[in-house]
Amino acid sequence: MPSIVTRPNWITSDFPRTNRLMDEVLTRFPWTDLLGTNGESTSTWIPPVDIFESNDELRLVAELPGVKPEDVKLSVTDSTLTIRGEKNQVAEQKSGTVHRYERSYGSFERSFQLPRTVDADRTRAAYEHGVLTISIPKAEQAKAREIKVDVKK
Question: Are residues 49 and 66 in contact, defined by beta-carbon separation less than 8 angstroms?
Fold first, then answer.
């Protein structure tokens, strides 16, 4: 006879709430990034950043919804790329009761340790529809080169 496993009601009813709480805790923690950064973050909210590498460049793509382009500042010091900015809260409710605020606001700062293989002086940045794309070309000596193999007969 097969056995039926039942779960207490609190597990199924509180699971979505627990998931939301864990997501909030984990997205606010200054995790170390993929490029071996020092994980520095002094922010009210932490915008997510994807990092890509090709033969020619390193590319960072940051989601900055609601941040005005003029409120974003980029700097490279030594081998550290820093993205700073601020997302201002806009009071959308003029009257009545606010039941919930879930969107994050405030200043942010993300720092990334750059590898020695890039040419930080030629860094380019573009901002479109709340997405910041930073392209950092690789130094010529760091690019992969194909070497011809001579065949002796």
Answer: no
pLDDT computed for residue 82 by the predictor: 95
C-alpha distances (whole Å) from 119 to each of 26, 60, 152 are 33, 14, 39
Kindly tell me if the per-residue pLDDT of 102 is higher than 50: yes
Burial of 29 (0-12, 13-18, 19+ CB in 10 A): exposed
Residue 89 contacts residue 45 (beta carbons within 8 Å): no
Which token pair is 35?
């490029």
> What are residue 137's DSSP bridge partners?
57
Supply the pTM of this predicted model.
Answer: 0.63
Query: What is the spatial distance between Cα 126 and Cα 69, in angstroms, rounded to a whole number?
Result: 9
Residue range 35-89+106-142 forms a domain whose CATH class is mainly beta
